[in-house]
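Hi P.,

Sorry for the delay on this. The queue was packed all week, but I finally got your sequence through. Input first:
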Amino acid sequence: MRVTSIEIKNFRAFKGIPLKIDLASKGKNLLVYGENGSGKSSLYLALRDFLESASKNSDITKFPFRNIFVSTNDGFVKLDFVDDASDPDAKLYEWSSLKRDTAEALILEIDKTKGFIDYKALLRTHLLQNESDSVNIFNLLVTSLISNITNDITSRTFGEEWKKIESSIPYRNYTKYLVPLERRIKGFNDGLRVKLDELKAKVEEMLRYFGYEDVIALEFGFAGVSYNRAKRYEDKGFDNRNVSLRVKFFNQDLAEHQHVLNEAKLSAIAMAIFFAAVLLQPDPPHGLRLLALDDMLIGVDMSHRLPVLDILDNYFKDYQLFLFTYDRAWYEIVKLRVGEKRWKHVELFAHTTDEHDVLVYADDRNFLERAKEYLLAHDYKASAIYQRTHFELIMKRFCEKMCVKVKYTSDQSRLMANDLWTAIKSERNPKHWTGLTDKLVVDVESYRKFILNELSHASWSTIIPAEVGQSITVIGQLDAELNAIMKAKTASAPPPASVPSPAPPPSLPPGPATP
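Then the structure:
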């Protein structure tokens, strides 16, 4: 089973017309690049919050789920599923004010076995906690990483077990209450020790990929939780709620490793722990495993990033993967590595108007169709932004194809539209290529000034709906004419000259016999 589409409306950073990401009929993995403020993390949270909405009783109409710039309660997140065996549970599920399909069995199962990791979660493995100088990951393990993993001693999950223990504090310390409580605690402690040994073995496997197998060794110190038997009810509680993360570096014990090791090593340790915990999750009945990573590689150099791809290749081939990053260079590297057969690549960009942010979604690059959708939705500012994005794209593509000389900039992705348009106009003569009518040039100049020029955003309120619609038509005509010019250029190009076969090498005298 796989997720085949994600649809979002008026959720967190997403506002206005719905955004739908099609992952194809087989359910591709998803790679997302997003600028800061572009909605990248909102997309990550849409997946996570959708799966957790039932267990956490989340209301999509309330903060922080509903977009703060809308007053309606029509927001939703929808996931569509497919299964080769025609499983009846493989269908469209919706989380909205009208429907709450997230409480169905399939979604609850996926929630228990999913892996969602971001840089904030990784920090919890090595930041100082309270005023202690040691790193205690007890709560992280029991409430998150292994919460849904079954305790082999008691046959209940660690999350369920711990909640039961916390709710069993007796009002009076009578034997009839203490015996079952301490028996339950013993089962929890014994099971957690077994699971920590399994976790440690998996962590060591992960660390090998980062080249730290002979450098870093981890231990999980756990003495066992105990009930304190306090007399006053307000003092009752549990001692030793501590799983200490101990690190040896070149066989030297580091009492405060978070102060000694650099960020790359700390991040490698954290990633190894998280990946190992995901691998210990139970097998889902429907076979769907989700792993989502959001900017988990912040501050990590390339020598530590590439092993992550190796880990995904070797351990998570059966998972549907969702990778999110704000790092453009890393996005391009991953694109090159994973290809397009099993992955969908999308990009998100942020633009600001005088009323709200507009998130530009780059999928098949047909921004003009998106501009038309916003025009019909009466969001003229968003329509203008999508038009300008399409305008810049077709000009960049044309300049590259036709070898147009453009003003130099060290970051080609930041070329200004005016630089591109000026370069195209300067070469509009029969010496280079023919086409692009005078009328169209005048029309583009007119609409560029009032609709497409980024500098005109100080006067957003002057946008006229009819002009937005006409601008779409003009940009469509420009796209068509530029494509016609490129097609004519390709058709008129001479065929490549035949290359004569190289002459055979001269014969050489025989060398000495080989002994």
